[in-house]
Amino acid sequence: MSFACCSSYKQCSREGMCVSKHEHREECDYQKKLAKGLNFFKGKELYFEIDGRMFHVGKRGDYHRDTRSLNQQERETFKQQFKEGSIIWQERMLIEKCIDEKVSDTDRAVCRVFLSTEKEKYNIHNYNGRALTEKTAFMIRDFFRNHDIGAAVEYVGSKASKTVVKSEAPQVKADQKIPETRKKAEVRIDPKAEPIIGKQISFDDFLASMVC
């Protein structure tokens, strides 16, 4: 069964089954979301739209400050807090505004934004729930502060990846000989001991002959 992106309901019905519950002209992009690794069937989520990008909003937990999806009551509380003003939020993901962070070894995605309102506390990540680069996180923080909403940047990892230095063993050529170091054992001879010649004795007899 194929899932075709369609521009009308008739085309969608003709080419395959559309799994979208939204306006076909806007939301029939099943294949595009799969290509980005997004779960199309995931429950309703909330997103802030800032600077032409989608950022996921989740409830900030008290335990380890983790992030979870908002339940129905928490979503309604969220809507009441942001129902007016210039802050744009969405209940659905706009695929054309889902932008991945550009990272490097020295500029990793290790941040999230902590948002605090009078009623709730939230964590903000990228559209896919992943961490943000430092530059993006500070942009989001400043955006909310300009709207008199408390926001702070949190680091959830190291800014730069650690460089692993491997110690290399000295290379030895096949025809190169390594000088051997031998330690000479010191042998002490007791002048009082009688020489043993012509017969083999046991170790016990040898020790007995060494005792005077």
TrEMBL record:
Name recorded for this polypeptide: Uncharacterized protein
